[in-house]
Amino acid sequence: MSSAEEFETQPVSPQKLQGPKTFAASYAGEHVAGTEFVIGALFVAWGVGAVDVLVGLLFGNLLAVLTWGLVTAPIATDTRLTLYAYLEKIAGPGTIKLYSVVNGILFCVLAGAMITVSASAVRILFGIEDQVGYFPTDFRFVLVVLGVGAVVVYMAVKGFKKLAAFAEVCAPWMILMFLLAR
């Protein structure tokens, strides 16, 4: 293990574990979001049936839940270590440095893409045209992206408990909106 006694290198104590309600809210908040809403609508616009999209989302999310529940969660609860600490324990500090750099770049790109997709759903409220080029053609869309990004960053900074509480409130009506919009 790392010689540094950092939070990430310490096993998670049992009193820090969250319950199934928090998991369900966090999972639903992440996966029943504007991205699925917008991408599902795009599939329908391209000729895929709405029922096919819903069945695909249900099947895909079922497989994701089973993977998390049957593969990831047992490993996590047995080791009670973060992925970084576990990887460092297995592969050494050089690997964790490389992994951190690559993972950081990928998360930046992914976060930017997901925020932009979510902003694509919000843009409709402001009457902004589709932004389908490499660069935005409407400055208001840039402002919407910055606004959505600010909310995402604010919630991330508040920490997991606040984010889970936010998801517990938002996830049920997001699911309802998703189903009603079909």
Automatic annotation (TrEMBL):
UniProt keywords, alphabetically: Membrane, Transmembrane, Transmembrane helix
UniProt KW Methyltransferase keyword: no
Keyword set includes Transmembrane: yes
Transmembrane segments: 37-59, 99-126, 138-157, 163-181
InterPro entries from the UniProt entry: CodB (IPR030191)
Official protein name in the record: Uncharacterized protein
Taxonomic source organism: Paraglaciecola aquimarina
UniProt lineage: Bacteria, Pseudomonadati, Pseudomonadota, Gammaproteobacteria, Alteromonadales
